[in-house]
């Protein structure tokens, strides 16, 4: 079945920052990143892409992402709007943005882990109650003996589980080569250590 040109969408996918997804650089200095540099790189990419493919300039532009892109998408969108207002060329037909399963606050992420894991049935009601009571709802950064004991039990129960995607095994790849720089226990330690 053929589609008319006005019935077709275009999708350009960017993995950012360098080193995530399929993105890479031959220059090790490119891996020294922060959010500001990532936004600048993404904005530069968007402008250069439309300069290279001006036939797409009239198409509506939407910026989207998930997970940590909850920080990038709104900030990149703001840069695009500022550029439009300042007359930066090419003139983009920016229409909006959206994010899914966004990470907008690490404290919220950390605080949501224990209830999430409990609701998924990955820890018992008793362990959940022990964690809730000992931490008093603040599930991180405590040295109280009851908290430490309960965190160890939590780690033992969830150590082999990919807490970002509970139905998928851990998978860390760099350019198609598996690496084991962080195991499951280290990831739990990162959130609850």
From TrEMBL:
Transmembrane segments: none
Stored InterPro entries: AB_hydrolase_fold, Peptidase_S10
GO-annotated molecular function: serine-type carboxypeptidase activity
Single Gene Ontology BP annotation: proteolysis
SUPFAM superfamilies the UniProt entry points to: alpha/beta-Hydrolases
Family designation: Belongs to the peptidase S10 family.
Protein name: Carboxypeptidase
Species of origin: Amborella trichopoda
Lineage: Eukaryota, Viridiplantae, Streptophyta, Embryophyta, Tracheophyta
């Amino acid at each position: 079945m053929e589609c008319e040109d006005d019935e077709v969408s275009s999708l350009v996918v960017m993995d950012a920052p360098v080193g995530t997804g399929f993105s890479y650089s031959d220059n090790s200095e490119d891996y020294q990143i922060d959010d500001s540099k990532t936004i600048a790189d993404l904005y530069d990419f968007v402008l250069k892409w439309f300069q290279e493919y001006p036939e797409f300039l009239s198409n509506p532009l939407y910026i989207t992402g998930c997970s940590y892109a909850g920080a990038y998408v709104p900030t990149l969108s703001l840069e695009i709007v500022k550029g439009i207002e300042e007359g930066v060329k090419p003139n983009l037909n920016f229409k909006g943005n959206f994010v899914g399963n966004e990470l907008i606050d690490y404290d919220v992420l950390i605080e949501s882990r224990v209830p999430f894991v409990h609701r998924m049935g990955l820890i018992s009601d008793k362990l959940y109650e022990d964690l809730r009571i000992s931490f008093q709802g603040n599930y991180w950064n405590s040295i109280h003996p009851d908290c430490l004991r309960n965190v160890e039990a939590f780690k033992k129960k969830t150590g082999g589980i990919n807490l970002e995607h509970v139905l998928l095994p851990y998978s860390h790849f760099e350019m198609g080569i598996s690496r084991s720089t962080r195991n499951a226990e280290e990831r739990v330690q990162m959130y609850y250590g």
